[in-house]
Amino acid sequence: MKKNYIVLGLTAFLLLAGFSSSYAATNVTEPTHFSYDHQDEWEFVSGKMQSPINIVTSQAVKYKGSDLTLKYDKVGTSVVDDGHSIQVGLRGTAEIDDRTFSLKQVHFHAVSEHTINGKHFPLEGHFVHEAQDGRKAVIGVMFKAGKANTAFQQILDAAKSNASGEKGIKIDKLDIQKLLPANLGYYHYLGSLTTPPLTENVEWYILKQPVELSQKQLDEFYQYYDDNHRNLQELNGRTVFIKS
User: Can you tell me whether residue 35 is helix, strand or coil?
Assistant: First the structure.
């Protein structure tokens, strides 16, 4: 049976009127048990800056911040099915607006949590990063049906090998770049975690260019999770920025 459980730089933030005063990092410990079937029962720390959102490209404001500089190690430290998604432990850094974030993990949601002009993608990957002060930055990658992806197949194979889920499987040579598009242009906004406790002040960078997976690979992921996405949330006056 398919599982339905899962677990602006600073200047640009100041442009988000009414939100800048709450930018301090907060506790981001996630509970281990929750259901996407009962999202109306989720509790959250606020209600004005939640994720995911629908990104309307025509309303995005040009962002003058930096490009993303990603330096990811080619290793998956631990591949596990954690009951909420397939999650891969990762190492590396992201340089964003003269700040360094450490890469922690990537996990996947079906269908995509964010939408672009009202359109869902078959899958969305979240590369989760954390700075020394506790702030989180998540780089979102949209996946579409197309050619087979060697890196994603490595992850699927590891997840299959680790059917018990008791101990993570390591991928010594993970071709991590295959999970990222060639163009790192992005949409950026200030939001939240998309799972309880839904903590806010999370920096989101949704890459504009999708990455291809084969339909067979998508179907194989759906054997694990085919509905582990959070419902869209209201924008509530926030600005969405665009960086080409």
Answer: coil
Question: Consecutive sets of 10 residues in the chain, 244 residues long: mean pLDDT of each?
Answer: 39 35 34 70 72 98 96 97 94 97 98 98 98 97 98 96 77 96 98 92 98 98 96 96 96
Task: Name the nearest CA neighbour of 205 among 95, 111, 104.
Answer: 95
Report yes or no on 18 lying in a domain: yes
- Whether 200 and 46 have beta carbons less than 8 Å apart is answered as yes
Q: What share of the chain is helix, strand, coil (3-state, %, to 5)?
A: 15, 35, 50
Helices 215-222 & 150-161 angle (0-180, nearest 10): 30
Count of domains observed in the chain: 1
Instruction: Print the domain residue range for 201.
Output: 9-22+49-111+119-243
Cβ partners under 8 Å of residue 244, min gap 6: 185, 208
Q: Among 137, 151, 222, which residue's Cα sits nearest to residue 180?
A: 151
| Annotation says 84 is catalytic | yes
Question: Which of the following is catalytic: 33, 38, 84, 114?
Answer: 84
pTM of the model: 0.85
